[in-house]
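Here comes a specimen:
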Amino acid sequence: MEQKTERFIKKVENAFASEKVRITEFEMLIREWRQLISIRCYEDDDARQIHRNLNHLKFTVQWHSKRWCSEKSEDLKEFLETMIRYIDVELQSLRLKSSVEKRTTDIKGTSHNTMSWTATKRDLIELISALHSAKCINSGNVKLQRLVELFESIFEINLEYYHPEQNRMAVRTSIENRGLRAYFLSDLVNSFNAKIQNLK
């Protein structure tokens, strides 16, 4: 994984070697950086290990930043700082998640929640994504990450891999060539229709 990080930072350096980086290229690099973080840092469900991975990645970028910044463009310096700030946001989210988990645990250390999600994590991510896309919560004025954290708290489940999972959903094979890539939601519709039919 270290090599992937090195390659990405080299790619950033090459991109900013040109006279001007277009906004589309900037956004593409940020998306690639976000995906790299998802793969690089969230391989383990252990929060402490994720925290260590994020900090290690941050130190790597900081090292390159100090090594290059005396002789590189201001735009490259700003992008490297953006990469570091993105990691800081991930670290802050991790701390908030830990804080929420502590508040939902009683003095004895047992959870107040008696419900658990028994379908797959992929199914839950699909459901959350659908609710977010349809603006069902707060009229859409809520970030997807906040919804993920909410459902993680409700069901005491770890959905740290939701970014790459969404990417996989985007390239799914459609159901029966009808352009439907919502596998879980389609199953929900079928189950609901079957139940309603039985009530007649």
